[in-house]
């Protein structure tokens, strides 16, 4: 029987999706899959997550698209002379829980027709939203939640990554009515031990 499919998305780029993915893969002994890697092929997110996970159960599935340039997927694909075909992005076969990491935020374009949120819907995944506190993050978080609800995509919860702002956190949780799964304090050093420790603060 197939396991759960959980899609990790964020309220923007550089928000901490990869570290959160590593923490969840370690906590759940889940498989990991990054459907689209844009740039950094020699230090991909799959490679980063694999380097931070200690359990031997997790399988790291190959990307559907490996794009050479560090831009939004539709632009990176165009530079590489290809068009991303969403129908060719198929879930890996696994009986384990699968953690899927997106690229950028929900409205990142994959091609002229499809956004990242369309891919989440197509994969029939439950979402964990990664948020962070900065000026504008309340707006970005609530807009992301609103979009997911509009697409009728189930939201498992929110994980806050980074320095704490209790005022913003309370406002987001109250107005979104989405469950907080945990907070990740800024990691002094990102390594396997830090990932194991951070996993203790996540309640799924």
Short description:
With 204 residues, this protein is of the alpha/beta class.
What does this structure look like?
This protein has 204 residues and is of the alpha/beta class. The protein has a single domain, classed as P-loop containing nucleotide triphosphate hydrolases (Rossmann fold, 3-Layer(aba) Sandwich). 33% of the residues lie in helices and 19% in strands. It has seven helices and nine strands; from the N terminus they run βαββαββαβαβαβαβα. The strands form two sheets. The chain has a seven-stranded parallel β-sheet with strand order 4-2-6-1-7-8-9, with helices on both faces. β8, α6 (166-176) and β9 (180-184) form a beta-alpha-beta unit. The radius of gyration is 16 Å and the shape is globular. The two termini are 20 Å apart. The model has no long low-confidence stretch (mean pLDDT 95).
Measured as a percent range, the helix fraction is 25-40%
Number of domains: 1
Widest beta sheet: strand line-up: 4-2-6-1-7-8-9
CATH fold name: Rossmann fold
Task: Give a topology summary.
Layout: E1 5-10, H1 17-28, E2 31-33, E3 36-38, H2 45-52, E4 60-61, E5 65-67, H3 73-79, E6 98-101, H4 116-123, E7 126-131, H5 137-150, E8 155-161, H6 166-176, E9 180-184, H7 192-199
Parallel strand pairs: 1-6, 1-7, 2-4, 2-6, 3-5, 7-8, 8-9
């Amino acid at each position: 029987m197939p396991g759960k499919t959980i899609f990790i998305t964020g309220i923007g780029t550089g928000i901490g999706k990869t570290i959160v993915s590593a923490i969840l893969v370690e906590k759940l002994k889940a498989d990991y899959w990054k459907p689209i890697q844009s740039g950094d092929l020699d230090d991909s997110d799959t490679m980063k997550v694999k380097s931070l996970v200690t359990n031997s159960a997790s399988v790291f599935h190959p990307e559907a698209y490996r794009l050479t340039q560090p831009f939004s997927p539709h632009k990176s694909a165009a530079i590489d002379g290809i068009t991303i075909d969403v129908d060719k992005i198929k879930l890996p076969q696994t009986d384990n829980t699968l953690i899927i990491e997106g690229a950028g935020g929900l409205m990142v374009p994959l091609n002229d027709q499809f956004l990242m949120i369309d891919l989440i819907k197509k994969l029939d995944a439950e979402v964990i939203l990664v948020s962070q506190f900065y000026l504008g993050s309340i707006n970005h978080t609530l807009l992301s939640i609103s979009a997911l609800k509009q697409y009728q995509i189930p939201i498992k919860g929110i994980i806050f990554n980074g320095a704490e702002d209790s005022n913003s956190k309370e406002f987001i949780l109250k107005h979104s009515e989405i469950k907080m799964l945990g907070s990740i304090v800024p990691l002094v050093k990102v390594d396997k031990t830090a990932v194991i420790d951070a996993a203790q603060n996540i309640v799924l």
